[in-house]
Design goal:
about 150 residues, mainly alpha, two-stranded antiparallel sheet, 2 strands
Length: about 150
């Protein structure tokens, strides 16, 4: 099944999300295996991130990344959550489901991502944004910022 991420089918999309969780968690050796139980791999990867967030030392540890140095908890709450939010919609769209994304999460992601606008539009990053209609709802504006066109727009 194809997805809004033109380079990925559903399995590759889900593996990307799992692998992103492993990278953010700091385990660069773990990789999703599309031949194995994908739901179990998701539970393990997301659980590892949750465990790291629950550890005050790991949660507050400074990590480096594309957006500079920041506490691990900040990397998760900003980059990882925004990535997962976009790909949640991508997966739903690919399998023919409608999803209403969390409004607070979308607003927070846009607040973080908007100042980074052009810096995130790189190969392997965000697609060119779509200019939203003036009266567009939050989900449409969020998806358009990420280069996606909501079926409601």
């Amino acid at each position: 099944m194809t997805t809004p991420c033109s380079d990925w089918d559903v399995c590759a999309l889900v593996c990307h999300v799992i692998n992103t969780h492993w990278r953010v968690e700091g385990n660069n050796e773990k990789q999703a295996d599309p031949k194995e139980d994908i739901p179990s791999q998701w539970i393990e990867a997301s659980g590892a991130v949750q465990a790291a967030l629950g550890d005050p030392i790991r949660s507050s540890a400074t990590v480096s990344g594309i957006f500079g140095e920041q506490p691990f908890s900040s990397l998760v709450s900003r980059l990882l959550c925004a990535d997962t939010l976009y790909h949640t919609w991508d997966l739903a769209k690919a399998i023919g489901q409608h999803v209403e994304l969390d409004e607070e999460a979308m607003a927070y992601a846009l607040e973080f991502l908007t100042p980074l606008d052009e810096a995130i539009r790189i190969p392997g990053g965000f697609a060119p944004k779509i200019i939203s209609k003036l009266d567009a709802d939050l989900q449409t504006r969020f998806l358009n910022f990420g280069g996606r066109s909501d079926w409601r727009s």
